[in-house]
Amino acid sequence: MLIVDDSIVARAVLRRILEGSGCDVIEAGDARAALDLLARERVNVILLDIEMPGQNGLAALPDILRAGQGARVLIVSSTSAPGAEASVRALALGAADTLVKPGAGVLAGRFAQLLAERVERLTEDHRPGAPAERAAPSLGTRRDAPRIVAIGASTGGIHSLGRLLGELGAACTAPILITQHLPASFMPYFAAQVAKLAGRPCLVAEDRMRLRGGQVYVAPGDGHLVCGPMTDGHVLRLDREKSASGCMPSVDPMFASVAACFGADAFAVMLSGMGRDGAAGAERIVKAGGTLVAQDQESSVVWGMPGAVVAAGLAQAVLPPEAIGRAIAHRFEGGR
């Protein structure tokens, strides 16, 4: 495990917490030193501060991810508060998770517990033996282009979303629904980031908002995003009932409503995330005749949610995000 932080005090405290959890730790005082270490050492998790002299953590993140050769990056910074622009930018660039670093005098107690939990989460699913990428001929061509695309994601999902959306192209004219596990304070900036990544308008969903083609809608942090019929189309609704998974928002209600409204014309995607949220809704998609594709384990930060649908035999294909984006575009391009 690698700690990248310019504060000697912060590095010492982080080292003590991690070594207390049984981790082997190495340190770097800035991004350049981190890259030099990663050229010689292999680690599975990197704790990266944002505010450092020279190249800051966000600017260095793409190079650190490449040098880390699959290592998960946890941003630990005073600027990574929920809803902060730096947090969403870091997640979009490929960071696995973020954690607010408190003042030097309180780097213990609850923070130590949270840090140990985040590190365990990032290491428990970071194992060899990922199933091979699997595609299915049933993904189809233009004659069965989907009328809606629904995407569920959690930990690691923002970066995966960026990789998927970047492959869609203008041919994809279906509305896109996204449930990403994030608090409400993240949503305005998250929607703005998604709009840039997708090259199309993205809105934080509101109750009774009309569903329109070519638009992206993200679930608010305080409600499940579902859709329902109306006389001349479909409308979005916000459901605030407790979900079976305990998540708010939850992927299950979104998938279930999409299955009920669109049946075989639905294309559902399960991206990186911890737990099993979305597995029950995925079963509804498949039973209704829709298409369900899961992200592969190798490209996932945490292969909990996609792994659950794969283990249940529900996924028609298991692919990295770029390939999922191309598979969706393929449906709108006549299979060319």
Automatic annotation (TrEMBL):
Q: Which Pfam families match?
A: CheB_methylest, Response_reg
The biological processes this protein is annotated with in GO are: chemotaxis
Enzyme class label: hydrolase
EC assignment: the record states 3.1.1.61
SMART domains, per the entry: REC
Q: Boundaries of each CheB-type methylesterase domain copy?
A: 142-335
According to UniProt, the reaction catalysed is: [protein]-L-glutamate 5-O-methyl ester + H2O = L-glutamyl-[protein] + methanol + H(+)
Q: Describe the location of the Response regulatory domain by residue ranges.
A: 1-116
Active site per database record: 154, 181, 277
Positions where 4-aspartylphosphate occurs in the chain: 49
**Mind telling me which SUPFAM superfamilies this protein's record contains?**
CheY-like, Methylesterase CheB, C-terminal domain
| Cellular component GO terms, alphabetical | cytoplasm
Alphabetized, the UniProt keywords read: Chemotaxis, Cytoplasm, Hydrolase, Phosphoprotein
Q: Name one GO molecular function term.
A: protein-glutamate methylesterase activity
Which PROSITE patterns does the UniProt record give?
Answer: CHEB (PS50122), RESPONSE_REGULATORY (PS50110)
**Protein name according to UniProt:** protein-glutamate methylesterase
